[in-house]
Amino acid sequence: MKKVLHIFWETHHHNLSIIRYFSELSLAEVHHEYLVFDRQHQLDIYDEFAHVPMHFFSLNAQFLPWLREQHIDYDLIIIHGFFNHVLWEVLRENAAICQKTSWLIFGADLLIDDYIPEQVEFLSRMTAMRRDCVVNMKSVLTNICSDVDQPICNDKYGTPSLALKYAYYQDYVADPTELPAQIMSFAKGDNVIVLGNSADVSNRHIDMMAQLLELKHDIRILCPLNYAGDAEYIHRVIEYGQQHFGDRFFALTQLLSNQEYYYLLSLCDGLILAHKRQQAGHHWVYWLKQGKPMWGDLDAPIPRDLVNKGAVINHINQLHQLKDDLGSNRSYQQNVMIYQKFFSKGEIDNLWRNNFNELLA
Description:
This protein is an alpha/beta fold. The chain contains 16 helices and 13 strands. The mean pLDDT is 89.
């Protein structure tokens, strides 16, 4: 029996569905365990996994000694996003751990330099540690919809011995569920556009709202600001939205469950994601399944890849056509077929079976 340890950080909005997927993935002779490093002790949200082997730590002083001692029990360690700089130091010091570790790269994870450029000394040290580790790791996995993440990794940190692709599966169930009254009331209005996927500055919220303002259209903007970002930026986005759109702007600052969130999205009419990097994969894929209009920067990895697969995505420089597109009968059913062809559970299962065959060979 091969044993795999998955390590997660405080990305709880992703962790639950990922753990659920791997715990249900049928792989002969493969045993999965899960470790969550959570400084906020939000352990109750993992109650549904009482039957699953879980490990929880809130301090590096507890987690790292455990890993140094217990890693020998595992054939493979997969780190889902790698935001703990102290763990990079451990991998650099301990070749045995490093050589059985695979780094599954998130968008922000890879481009951390763009987010805290003022911390030059820290970033320089992080880059040096990653360079020492990546070439010795078991593998690096990059998003299946990005053709730039792996080259960026190779350029910044060196070429890993094994480069694989990954995708996370969700069923994106949008069954009706109870939502807070204010959110429900807003979402059930006409012409509701979802702007962005988080409070991260890469969503370019204010730039997009400035363009939407020029349309002189009675669109309503639902702006998810319930994770990532900093308080000052969130304040600026809300202030701009309320000042220019009034009650046609709604800042979603409350964290919802996946079921609640996907139901909320299902009530909306269009999606704008203006990221220039790999980000918001679940939003892109969910919107494919919905078969509704979406706009993005078609030079960014994910929308460029989806268009190459045959998806219909409008460029954000065409927002001036948004009014006509929302009111037309233009079909986006092609996107539903793209979802079924590339992102169904069967496709994602095959991807991970092939990955584990290579990683555990």
